[in-house]
Amino acid sequence: MMWRKYISQKESVIIKKVIFFEVQGGSDKGPDGYRPDTMPMVEALKECAQDAEVIFFEIEKREQIFNYVKDHAVAYVSRINPGNLKHEAEYFDMLRELCVEGIIGMPHPDAMISYGAKDALVKLRHTSLVPEDTYAYYTINQFKSTFPKSLAKGERVLKQNRGSTGEGIWRVQLVEKLADGVTEVPLDAQIKCTEAKDNHVEYHRLDSFMTFCEQYIVGTNGMLVDMTFLPRIKEGEIRLFMLRDKAINVVHKKPAEGADAFSATLFSGAQYRYDKPEEWGALVQSFLGQLHEITTLLGGYDLPLIWTADFILDTDDFGNDTYILGEINCSCVGFTSELELAHNVAQEIIDCLHEKATVLG
């Protein structure tokens, strides 16, 4: 096997481990305390003669963990769901320090932030992937002054930066149409709000709903992203499961039946279908062709090891299908429904180590 031949020439790669970071607790853990997709990756690496182990990050052991990884690892793979991490800033600082020490970050913490933050969409809005009228609100004043104008153009989707499984993602539509020529929704207008978490519907005045949404803007990494609502979401969201620059599989996520349902999460009742990338050839090739531009606009970092790009169908002015990017995830993408992908991940890690070792000579 080519890799076995390679590591015999580069003994330091055999000696050094690939460290998988996890954190204790959380709903993403199996009966053994690990994420169900972590140990399959560890075992797949060991089958390829690359040592690997799992370390649980604890703030009290931060220096001990740092020193151990610095001395014993060639790379780390972060498998911590941000929702389970109480000391995110300290964890990311440790990862940055490890990268400075020459440990290969999978991914680098700043890449994790740049790709995973919802405002990645705003950074990409001048590409064909994201509509131009996509906005990010970092302050309450900015939100309250701009959102009534964007809502006047039609249905919108607001996405908080924090949260998961559709929490804090709202489809917002006017109960009554505006009069012709009106370019800003009055603050006392009645709006219909549907949350992606479970497709439940609430009715509010615009001003009270914006006050409710202030919670998403305040605090560390707080922001709201405002996008046009794409009605073809009812046909399903298309998720590309990526290993660096390779599309490994495609998940077609169709929202539950019902007039208001638009969420593509399992929790909300969406149905998942797993397809081969070849079945979505046009989308895959278009996206891969734009990876260089994407990496440049998102900070120039190496592509994450495991990440996803979610697309929604739209129609262009000529009636042709187009694909709009709705979200990128890279903090801790799971694949518990297809654990056989652990072997693909292991090979990708090995390829990355090989590439880095070749560059370093």
Describe the fold and architecture:
The chain has helices at 2-9, 11-15, 38-47, 62-72, 88-100, 109-116, 120-123, 140-151, 206-212, 281-289, 291-297, 341-360, and strands at residues 17-22, 52-56, 73-78, 104-106, 135-137, 156-160, 169-174, 190-195, 201-205, 224-228, 237-243, 246-254, 271-275, 306-315, 321-329. It is of the alpha+beta class. The protein folds into 3 domains: 2-107 and 337-360, Cobalamin-binding domain (Rossmann fold), CATH 3.40.50.280; 116-128 and 232-334, D-amino Acid Aminotransferase, Chain A, domain 1; 135-227, no CATH class. It has a 6-stranded antiparallel beta sheet.
Summarize the structure.
This protein has 361 residues and is an alpha+beta fold. The chain has 12 helices and 15 strands. A hairpin with a 5-residue loop joins strand 8 (190-195) and strand 9 (201-205).
